[in-house]
Design goal:
- This protein has helices at residues 5-25, 29-32, 47-55, 78-82, 142-163, 175-193, 202-216, 234-245; strands at residues 37-40, 59-63, 89-94, 99-105, 109-114, 123-129, 134-140.
- The protein has 2 domains: 35-155, no CATH class; 164-245, no CATH class.
- The two termini are 42 Å apart.
- The strands form 2 sheets. Strands 1-2-5-4-3 form a 5-stranded mixed sheet, sandwiched between helices.
- It is 43% helix and 17% strand.
Amino acid sequence: MASGKGAEYEERFGKGGAALADALDRLPLHIRKIPLKLYFDNYFTSLPLIKHLTLCGYGATGTIRDNRLPKSCPAAAVKSMKALVRGSVSVCGDTSNGISVVRWKDNSVVTVASNMAGSGPLQTVKRWSSKEKKMVQVPQPHCVSEHNKKMGGTDIMDQSINAYRTNIRIKKWWWAIFSWMLDAAVQNTWLVHRTKDEHASLLDVRRQISTTLLTRCQRDVSGAGTEGATGPPRGIISQYIKSVMSV
């Protein structure tokens, strides 16, 4: 149960927004003084949160759920937007707090709230038209374009991790988190490695790491872990390396 400032944040911003606000409060003071630009999805976004981040000196842009907008918001309703042509835009804003809310019709209706960008200048994106049977140019609001660019890195990371996810099943609640951290670390290592060797694949790097572990490890990793031993059980290490080498 949240207490103190965490409880206050949760009441004001909801669970997702409270976690974000609390995480920012925990940053070192010299980092908090930097005018950070934050991009997040609709789990976190609310107008009170963006107002709070504005007062803290942060830029904020995020997709927002329809039920988190005030009923007085003059943006076109999602239902009516669905009937419009692709590329249609509806804009409203909280001018007193410098927040824009932009609703855009793509394949579905997307709503973005931001204190950094509004609808203009409009960008163009390519979309497949089932009616015309070809790619067509569709206008896209600036805030949506910026959000997609910044969130794209997270999507690429998720895609890379899913391509070669550690395939070991262990009935421990922490294992999914731990194995994800391993895979994320390997993926980030690959990105750094590509600055020197742009042709290296993620699979090559994973195998190189595994080979290095096998070569440098001073103990037998093929057996099961022994009671009282420090570090991860040997069996887990062996399974992890085998899962990488067998891809």
